[in-house]
Amino acid sequence: MEREYSDRALSLIRWSPNFGNSLEKGGFMLSIHVVEAIRFDLNSGYTKCISEDIKSNSMTVGNYQIVNPNEGQPLPDSHRVTVRVTSGNGGSYHHSESVTGGHFAFHTVEAGAYMACFYAADHHPSASMTVDFEWKSGIAAKDWTNVAKKGSVELMELELKKMFDSVQSIQEDMFYLREREEEMQQLNRSTNTKLSWLSIFSIAFALSVAGLQLWHLKTFFEKKKLI
């Protein structure tokens, strides 16, 4: 069973049968928007992918850790994961092999869906592990504690800076959504134009076939001297 720590809802998208060249069994992908922390189970030989839509030039930070089933004891050898973070165009931003936990942080170059995939290698007998995963983007990824320490700012000034960054983030989101809307409108106009030309071509083709049939029938009847 999966456990969620944020108020955001997780939605199951589709089964994902591939994880690079190493996956032989199926896994699945989850789509998330802004997630503070989630916990999920992962069986050996399977992959679980989590996707987040991120704007360009945004900071994104992720932390993951396998939960120790026996506190105070070393993790079993079967509890290892391979983690890969990629962009929608296939760019690789993080890759760790057979680890028990890790961290990634990067600035996005392009807007779109970024995917974090967790793969557990085959193990006999089959093993199941629990993974804690935290993924933050944009203003949520900013470390305000360090900002306060480095700047030696007062509490009120820090809160004002948070508010300013929040407003700036909302404004950037508005511009981003407007750009996406314009792209969709452009796509709709292009599709409508293509459909119009297709309709005209279909009508012209149908009329041509009808005319050819009439001409053929007229020629046939004239040869038979029926008309």
UniProtKB/TrEMBL annotation:
Mode of membrane association: Single-pass type I membrane protein
Cell location: Membrane
Alphabetical keyword list: Membrane, Signal, Transmembrane, Transmembrane helix
Highest taxon in the source lineage: Eukaryota
One Pfam assignment: EMP24_GP25L
GO cellular component: membrane
Similarity field: Belongs to the EMP24/GP25L family.
Ranges of residues in domain GOLD: 47-162
Residues passing through the membrane, by range: 195-215
Protein name from the UniProt record: GOLD domain-containing protein
InterPro entries reported in the protein's UniProt record: Emp24-like (IPR015720), GOLD_dom (IPR009038)
